Recover the amino acids of this structure.
């Protein structure tokens, strides 16, 4: 039963009531507060998506040993009765989600005893889109290095490059591979040593390949022809780099940083230049740059913020930054644009959707649920289609960029992570693995539309 406090003058009377009704002193009921320190994670089977009617796997960590923990959604207890954390402060259990569970983010109250704390964990129920439309594409794939992150395409040379990294030095491994864009034959491969390869982009004007070393806070430049190292920037030179894009018209490489900055480099002299500092328009918000999309002709650079539902549009001539709100987006990560219409497309992991906005006004033009863990999006000007990587649902969804209508939903392998579109409309995607023995993981896939 709830007892609302209408004014401070009734505090002593209310405390006395509780003490007499329960037999407990006020000091026992309101002992020294403790901070909630545990962590709760939800997933579907094999770290997959959570769908209505499916099984939910729950894991907890960081709790006190043998601490009693309960998880509740509304009035429904989800956890086993009298569940306790183990000797390491962890727990695991599973439950079946109702068939009528609504898509979206559900608040689950996590309550502990000894000490008494409470917190809220979000359980995300994702849309389930059936596979369809594969007959319209010629699809082939090849195994690449473990832990593949991103892919880049050189239209000038007919090659693709992939960046891979697993673990941390000295036990970790990393590789950069060059493959034929038509046959997917490996033409060259190099191990960058302690500097793991994550983001990747080609600079055809200078015959180089730019790679981000996220865990070492650095970037590196390689020769495209033989993958020999041209320059390795020192560790700590770029904080948490993620994506890199090449602006051939201005001779610049732009690097997002998981932070509020985008760093800039001269692609000819390989010198670090002044970059851009992005400020969130939300009160108390912090912009965290993710994917990058470059409109080279218009001189505009786009990025989205993982921590706030916002898009940044940067004028590369004036340096002016325009921040646009992204209603309906949670933890956005992927971005691309249509230069003909001025539309900007955003993929969001937390809301499992792709939204299109007007790049000038910020007006939302469509909002399409596409899968689970929607990570990246790429626009194909040749077909007017969007290709979307849904990491948790193992799919690549194809949308009509004008309407947001789903045109196909393709098998993307385990954990599709990144994709790019070649000028003629061929899509290259990479996907990670569910463990070292996963035959569907760590692959480069070529998706070509049939005539």
């Amino acid at each position: 039963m709830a007892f609302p406090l209408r004014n401070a003058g009734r505090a002593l009377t209310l405390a006395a009531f509780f003490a007499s009704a329960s037999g407990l002193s006020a000091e026992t009921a309101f002992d020294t507060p403790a901070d909630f320190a545990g962590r709760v994670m939800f997933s579907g089977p094999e770290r997959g998506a959570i769908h209505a009617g499916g099984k939910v796997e729950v894991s907890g960590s960081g709790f006190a040993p043998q601490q009693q923990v309960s998880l509740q959604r509304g009035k429904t207890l989800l956890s086993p009765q009298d569940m306790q954390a183990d000797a390491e402060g962890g727990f695991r259990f599973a439950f079946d989600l109702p068939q009528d569970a609504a898509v979206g983010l559900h608040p689950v109250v996590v309550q502990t005893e000894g000490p008494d704390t409470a917190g809220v964990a979000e359980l995300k129920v994702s849309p389930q889109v059936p596979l369809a439309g594969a007959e319209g594409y010629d699809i082939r794939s090849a195994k690449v290095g473990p832990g593949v992150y991103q892919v880049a395409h050189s239209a000038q040379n007919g090659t693709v490059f992939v960046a891979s990294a697993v673990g941390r030095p000295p036990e970790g491994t990393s590789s950069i591979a060059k493959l034929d864009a038509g046959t997917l034959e490996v033409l060259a491969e190099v191990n960058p040593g302690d500097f793991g390869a994550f983001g990747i982009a080609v600079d055809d004007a200078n015959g180089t390949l730019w790679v981000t070393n996220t865990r070492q806070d650095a970037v590196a430049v390689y020769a495209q022809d033989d993958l020999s190292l041209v320059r390795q920037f020192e560790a700590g030179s770029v904080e948490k780099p993620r994506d890199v894009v090449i602006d051939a018209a201005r001779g610049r490489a732009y690097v997002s940083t998981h932070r509020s900055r985008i760093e800039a480099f001269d692609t000819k002299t390989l010198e670090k230049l002044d970059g851009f500092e992005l400020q969130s328009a939300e009160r108390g918000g912090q912009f965290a740059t993710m994917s990058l999309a470059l409109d080279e002709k218009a001189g505009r650079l786009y990025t989205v913020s993982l921590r706030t539902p916002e898009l940044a549009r940067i004028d590369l001539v004036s340096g002016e930054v325009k921040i646009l709100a992204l209603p309906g987006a949670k933890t956005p990560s992927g971005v691309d644009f249509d230069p003909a219409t001025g539309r900007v497309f955003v993929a969001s992991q937390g809301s499992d959707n792709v939204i299109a906005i007007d790049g000038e006004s910020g007006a939302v033009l469509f909002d399409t649920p596409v899968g689970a863990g929607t990570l990246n999006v790429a626009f194909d000007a040749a077909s007017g289609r969007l290709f979307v990587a849904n990491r948790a649902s193992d799919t690549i969804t194809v949308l009509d960029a004008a309407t947001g209508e789903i045109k196909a939903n393709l098998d993307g392998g385990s954990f599709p992570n990144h994709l790019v579109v070649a000028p003629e409309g061929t899509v290259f995607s990479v996907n990670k693995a569910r463990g070292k023995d996963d035959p569907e993981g760590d692959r480069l896939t070529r998706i070509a539309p049939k005539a």
Summary: Residues 1-24 have pLDDT under 50 and may be disordered. The CA atoms of residues 73 and 108 lie 5 Å apart. The longest strand covers residues 104-113. The two ends are 67 Å apart (CA to CA).
